[in-house]
Amino acid sequence: MTSFTRQTIMYVFTYRKDNVRKTFFLRLILISMLCTAAACGWSSKQKEVLSAFNSATQCFEDEDWDNAVNMVSCSTMDFLDTIALNLAQQGLTEYVSGSDLLSVMYNEYIDFNGNITNVFVQGSKATVTVSSIDYSMLMEDGIWKLELEQLCRNALDKAFKGSYLQFATLGHIQ
Fold first, then answer.
1. What is the pLDDT of residue 11?
2. CB 135 within 8 A of CB 105
3. Residue 101 burial by CB count (10 A; 0-12/13-18/19+): exposed, middle or buried?
4. Three-state SS annotation for 80-121
């Protein structure tokens, strides 16, 4: 067998082998893309949560605090009202109510910007993931509302760390 024939056979063999690999990987990529496209469709519950989340975040972005207060859970507003009251008792009278603190919390600690990557719904609770940050939502009186209490707690805990105000002294809020 001549060198030319050997090279030709190796080329054909290699071409077929590479072609099979390319075809396999192209099929694998195509299947992956189809699976991803199928998974991107939201269920009706997820769409409902997503719609409520988008409405709420729009109120925050528009600084429409009268409507934003109605878009957060009762426990969040109770928590912020208690914090405002306790701050007033400590001499910080800038915050009359939880709605005053809600605007501060949003401007300082809450960031709804990013891509929504997941919406998980389980009964009357849901989680919306925005660029790796999880936002909780609760169904209250038939309406999905943002549950920001834990996020606010964590932010205030960090903010008061090392200050003369201690988060724990603000009414021993549990």
1. 56
2. no
3. buried
4. HHHHHHHHHHCCCCCCCCHHHHHHHHHHHHCCCCCCEEEEEE
99-108 pLDDT per residue, tens: 888 999 999 9
CB of 46 closer than 8 Å to CB of 121: yes
Tell me the three state secondary structure of residue 136.
strand
Angle between helices 149-160 and 74-89 (to 10 degrees): 30
Cβ–Cβ < 8 Å for 76, 152: yes
Is 42-169 in CATH node 3.10.20? no
- Read off the pLDDT band of 30 (50, 70, 90): very low
**Which residues in the chain belong to E strands, given as ranges?**
116-122, 125-130, 133-140, 143-147
Span 99-127, average pLDDT = 93
Q: Report the pLDDT value the prediction gives residue 37, as an integer from 0 to 100.
A: 44
* The pair of three-digit structure tokens given for residue 52, joined into one six-digit string: 């409520």
Cα–Cα distance measured from residue 119 to residue 134, given in angstroms and rounded to the nearest whole number = 9
CA distance 165 to 174: 17
Closest CA to 170 of 100, 108, 80: 80
Domain ranges of the chain: 1-40, 42-169
- Grade residue 143 by pLDDT with cuts at 50, 70 and 90: very high
